[in-house]
Design goal:
By secondary structure, this protein is of the alpha/beta class. The protein has two helices and three strands. It starts with 7 loop residues before the first helix and ends in a 23-residue tail after the last strand. 21% of the residues are buried.
C-alpha cells in the first residue's frame, strides 16, 4: 500500500477491506478510524512528533477488535525509519 498514501480513495478502499491493518507511513492520522473495518486488528508502527500515530486512534479504537497503543505499540519512539532529518555520517 505504499503508493496508496498519495491517493486517499485508494487508501480508503484497501484499509476498508482489511482484517489486519499495519500502518507505517509516518504521516499523522493519515488512516482515518472510520475507514477501518469493524472488528479489524490495527498495528500502528509509524511515529510522529507529539506521540501521534498514523491511525486516527480514538475513532479507530471504537471500531476495532485490537489496536496497538501510541506511543509504545511496536517500537520505542522515535523510530529511526520515520526520521525527517538526514542521518549524520561520521
Amino acid at each position: 500500500m505504499q503508493h496508496a498514501i498519495h491517493e486517499p480513495s485508494t487508501c480508503f478502499r484497501i484499509v476498508g477491506g482489511a482484517d489486519i491493518v499495519v500502518a507505517a507511513v509516518c504521516r499523522p492520522e493519515l488512516i482515518k478510524g472510520a475507514w477501518i473495518k469493524s472488528g479489524a486488528v490495527v498495528i500502528g508502527a509509524g511515529y510522529n512528533p507529539g506521540n501521534i500515530g498514523d491511525v486516527e486512534y480514538d475513532t479507530a479504537a471504537q471500531r476495532v477488535h485490537l489496536i496497538t497503543p501510541v506511543p509504545g505499540g511496536v517500537a520505542p519512539p522515535p523510530s529511526p525509519s520515520c526520521s525527517t532529518k538526514p542521518s549524520q555520517q561520521p
